[in-house]
Design goal:
The complex is a heterodimer of chains A (about 290) and B (about 130). Chain A contains eleven helices and eleven strands. By secondary structure, chain A is α/β, with parallel strands linked by helices. Chain A has two domains: about 70 residues, Chemotaxis Receptor Methyltransferase Cher, domain 1, CATH 1.10.155; about 180 residues, Vaccinia Virus protein VP39 (Rossmann fold). The chains are: A alpha/beta (about 290), B alpha/beta (about 130). At the A-B interface, helix 8 of A face helix 4, strand 5 and helix 5 of B.
């Protein structure tokens, strides 16, 4: 790829998605965009870029989507899900015992492995959650991955990454060579397309936000801005979970790391309390009542 | 160094599995069928068994039922690794005492994930990007 083409794609991705590629990510562009170029009948990336420059909004959208779609798997990194089971949920069960409701946001829900992993965790502890209203909202920039997430259908390869075999047996059905997560788990997750660069205050307040492996793509100012807006979307005693390679340190005072819990953060003292927006309830996704017992 | 017994009638599969598991720090013993595998276990119980299902002489299912009845035969972690990818086979394997189940084809990420799952491999998951 020529340096001008690379610069063109870098700037375009930055403007459209906030994706901030460093100067050495040509390989990533090639590995993500060559299949797209071939699928659309271009000889290679120069031809693809030429067509984009000539003006093709649809192609630009496809390129942004291809570049921002991340690899993911069930219970990715394990540790965040241990935090969820052992730190987050015991406190939530205690503190929310009165109102019996829990709102979780997967801010980069991707193809669904993360929200469905959380849904399976909650299902496994359903005896403690009898009568609770549980809401898991999965958002992503990409419609294509949201569609896959909604379907809950995964390849044999995908269900073997991170998913214990007992959970596969318990929560999936086999459809030929593919595996579909059961309808009751799918029903626990709501999907919505969302660009983190845009306002998301209409989503209302969350007890837990998983925002993993997406901020790494953004530049510092964008990260700081997103942290500030996340802080206004999270309950004062809520939890933020970041990816293994991500941190708030040096970027924001809005969140503080939790000691001895890698990747786990809570709103800091400087968090500006903001009332729940008036429209939040009207636009919030429907809530799923947790089956008891 | 922990020992992993690799049981498969295909020399190619044993070779691939050996390379992956040695990279993960295991000492490898090979067996071509369930009978050979049982004999190896009578000599010394391995920490892990990577177990094919369909093999001549004695299949993997029969092997695990014998293994689990041996003294201390509950200790080795048994990970099936087979082209039998139906829910019925998986359920039978779990009922017979299997700890994990790999559906072929497999790669080193899947093997590492499954061995991590049964507590035999500690290295962190690789981070993308």
């Amino acid at each position: 790829m020529t340096p001008p083409d690379y610069e063109y794609l870098r700037k375009l991705l930055k403007d459209h998605s906030g994706l901030d590629l460093s100067a050495d990510k040509q390989y990533l562009i090639e590995s993500r965009l060559l299949p797209l170029a071939r699928k659309d009948g271009f000889a290679g990336l120069p031809e693809l870029v030429q067509k984009m420059k000539a003006g093709s909004a649809a192609l630009v959208a496809q390129v942004v989507e291809a570049m921002t779609t991340n690899e993911t798997f069930f219970f990715r990194d394990k540790v965040p899900f241990e935090h969820f089971r052992e730190t987050i949920m015991p406190e939530i069960l205690r503190k929310r015992a009165g109102r019996k409701s829990l709102r979780i946001w997967c801010a980069a829900g991707s193809t669904g492995q993360e929200p469905y992993s959380l849904a399976m965790c909650l299902k496994e502890m359903s005896s403690s959650l009898s009568g609770w209203r549980i809401e898991i909202l999965a958002t992503d920039l990409s419609q294509e991955v949201l569609e896959k997430s909604r379907s809950g259908i995964y390849s044999q390869f995908e269900v073997q990454r991170g998913l214990p075999i007992q959970l596969l047996v318990k929560y999936f059905k086999q459809i030929g060579e593919l595996w579909q997560i059961n309808a009751d788990i799918r029903a626990m997750v709501q999907h919505r397309q969302l660009n983190l660069l845009h306002d998301f205050s209409q989503l209302g307040q969350f007890d837990v936000i998983f925002c993993r492996n997406v901020l790494i793509y953004f530049d510092l100012d964008t990260k700081t801005s997103i942290f500030g807006r996340l802080a206004r979307t999270i309950e004062a005693d809520g939890f933020l979970v970041l990816g293994a390679a991500e941190t708030v340190v040096g970027l924001t005072e809005a969140f503080k790391p939790v000691a001895d819990r890698r990747g786990l953060y809570r709103p800091g003292d400087s968090r500006v309390p903001v009332a729940r927006p008036a429209g939040a309830l009207a636009t919030a996704p429907r809530r799923i009542a947790m089956a008891g017992g | 160094m922990k020992t992993c017994l690799v049981v498969d009638d295909s020399g190619v599969v044993r070779k691939v599995a050996r390379r992956i598991l040695e990279e993960m720090g295991f000492h490898i013993i090979e067996a071509e069928d369930g009978q050979q595998a049982l004999e190896a276990c009578r000599q010394e119980l391995p920490a892990a068994v990577l177990l094919d299902w369909n093999m001549p002489v004695m299949d993997g299912y029969e092997f695990i039922t014998h293994l689990r009845r041996m003294p201390c035969g509950d200790r080795p972690k048994v990970v099936f690794c087979t082209t039998e990818n139906g829910m019925d086979h998986i359920a039978r394997a779990l009922a017979a005492g299997a700890d994990e189940y790999i559906m072929k084809p497999f790669d080193k990420d899947i093997v590492a994930d499954k061995f991590r799952e049964v507590g035999l491999f500690q290295a962190a998951s690789p981070e993308a990007v």
